[in-house]
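I hope you will forgive my troubling you with a question about protein structure. You will find the record immediately after this paragraph.
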Amino acid sequence: MNNIVTIGNKGKGVRSDCAVTLEMCETGGLQIQIESKVKAIFGNQIEALVKDMLNFYAIQNAVIIIEDSGALPFVMAARIEAAIKKLTGTEKDYLLPMLAQNNYKTSKDKNRFSRLYLPGNTPSLMINAGIHKPDGIILDLEDAVAPDKKYEASFLVRNALRNLDFYNAERMVRINQIPRGLDDLEFLIPHNVNLLLVPKCEGAHQINMLNERIEYLKGKFNVTCDIWLMPIIESALGVIKAFEIASAAPNVVALAIGLEDYTADLGVMRTKVATESFFARTQIVNACKATGIQAIDSVFSDVADLDGLRDNVRISKSLGFDGMGCIHPRQIKVIHESFAPEAAEIEKAKKIVNAFIEASEKGLGVVSLGTKMIDAPVVKRAQKTIDLSIKLGKLNQNWREEYVN
């Protein structure tokens, strides 16, 4: 069995992270080496954390080298714990206290215009992500993490859920593909994750398998809050089974489509005009609308082309999508502005809903606006626009009183 391991990241360009080299010894006590530009200021705190963790795991003889690049305590603790567990196999968890502001839940119908993907093993990209106000922050354990880094990333993501300020963004994690993703859950379920993204989903059996494990862990750790699921459709089979997946369980709140993997599965190039994915996207939207959940479009990969993003969002919205992924904070504002109801939409919705209310108050069975008859689906769509506008602060709760007067 190995008695030495290195965990974490170091080198040029690495920020807010550290590398931890741990060597287990039979004698010699504890030898702690700290290499850090801020050692003069934070050296004592770093050493105290190292000693506390080694004591927690009853390690009395070891050499540990901390190569620090500005890591926050929760990052350093994750790196040290991963190193210890990799060498000792212990099941004990060293947990820093949960931030009080992270004890919030999210609703099934929460706005999910934007969700920002962040690599689960790169703390520098996590730390200030919430200040950009995405609707959701995704800590990614799947494609954004190299295979040999997935183990250590699990500890970092777990600690981030406890100690990173998400600024009220929905706390999301993209787990690995089922069945490997089942192993990720013990790092997530007890730590107030709001939503799990399920990559490369191809059937209800995967959702059922996932929920069975979730329920077991909720019982084990006394977790009572809902944990929402967003399956990602990324293959031809997944597209065909979209309705089955969307209706697989009550905690499925949305379907997302991943167009990079989907077009690769088709053996075609992904283009900006997106004719190659039109069928898949409309299939996803229809499955979602049929089951009353949200439809989430794929990411727009050219982060420099904000005009292209804006056009893409408008098309996405016109197809019936309720949001989309993003891979850079600069995309968030464009996505929010483009998915939110426009002034003309709000004004039309106000007229329709007002006409419906007036007709109902008069006991009329027919609703009309000018010379046009209005049926129930039109009213329902208009009311949805009203509700969303109020939620976004674009419309006053008492809009009708002001409108009628």
User: Anything to note?
Assistant: The chain has three domains: 4-88, 101-339, 343-404. The chain has a mean pLDDT of 92. The chain is about 40% helix and 20% strand. Residues 108 and 253 are 6 Å apart (CA to CA).
